[in-house]
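Final report, section 2: Outcomes. Of the targets proposed, CoA-transferase family III protein is the one most frequently requested by collaborating groups, and we therefore present its record in full.
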Amino acid sequence: MNSAKGALDNLRVIDATQMLAGPIAGTRLGDLGADVIKIEPPVNGEFNRTRGFEDRQSNGEMTTFLAVNRNKRSLSIDLKSAEGKEVLYELVKKSDVFLQNFRFGTADRLGIGYADLKKINPKIVYCSISGYGSTGPYRDRPGQDLIVQGYSGSMFSVGAIGDDPTPSALWGADVMTGYQAVIGILAAIESRHQTGTGQHVEIDMLSVVMDCQLQEIVTFLNTDRMPTRMEERSAHASIPAPYGVYKTKDAWLTLAMVPLSILGEVLDNDFLRTLTHYNDGHKHRDEIYKLIRHSFQEKTTAEWIEICDRVGAWCGPVYDYEALVKDPHIIETKYIWEQPQLRGGSAKTVRPPVRLSDTPPTIRRGAPALGEHTKEILIDLLGMPATKVEELIKSGAVGTVKE
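The predicted structure is given below as tokens.
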């Protein structure tokens, strides 16, 4: 065991997350030295302890759980009990960070929302990870990697001309959301050094995936040019059916980890209703995909979403960038911002994905023109005489913006 001092070993983190985005954030903080205490419900623990890639295990533990939960201590608490909550409250008094990825409103209902924990420890940095944030029409929708990929427009940036929308085999939305959560937490910790108080950090997956496509989306926003796919080519090899993208009557639909018995209700299929075990989606994989591949073409995407939402089947549309920027959630929650630029006044961009309640991110400068701030930096920051700066410019040692 390596006992070397870590950069964050003065921090204690309560990790009340499951699956991937939250746990990887906790793991990253733990890797940097933080004492990470993972909060799990009794009996089965968090999701990945009992459900993994084809139930693959190492020494009795799911490999998916092992992958994103190192550098942690596990504390099993029933947060629905008064006694369990009191244990957590005592732990909050001795901690620096609280990390959660419950569905919207769940933490508040449990009495462990930011307002609750701030009363116990005003210094707590509270990080909420969600699919779409705490405002807007989609705040109650499930946030899952594949569904967010569909919303974000990214599936039309890969694959060949004529291909179906192509999901990424990487868990990019989840993993990058975890990384952004770490950035937000560390920013809030630094702010606490200056103010003495914590704050609420919010990270949503859709913001993160849009931020990861800054070049593509900014190009589209400012030139109307869509990504063009070339002539040269299951959403993920380890996830059970029906995980994938399906053609509908008018567009496309994503289905995430939908229990097959629930999918049987969606499609009114008795065979699917009989498949009640999580691993049935692996065992009958080819049969299921063959069965349902064309089943969604009789209704529109909106109609299927309404049906799926009614029975709790995780789904979503597949957007290109044009549909994405017209979406009511994107508009209402102001995902698209303006950034200043030297020529042209401003350019459209995607807002920063990290939200801090007390020190929110801002866009104060756009991307600078070459040498735009050379004189400003040399004169104002370094204190060089203007005549010296002109000499440096004339000699070619430094450059300034060309008019």
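The chain has a mean pLDDT of 91.
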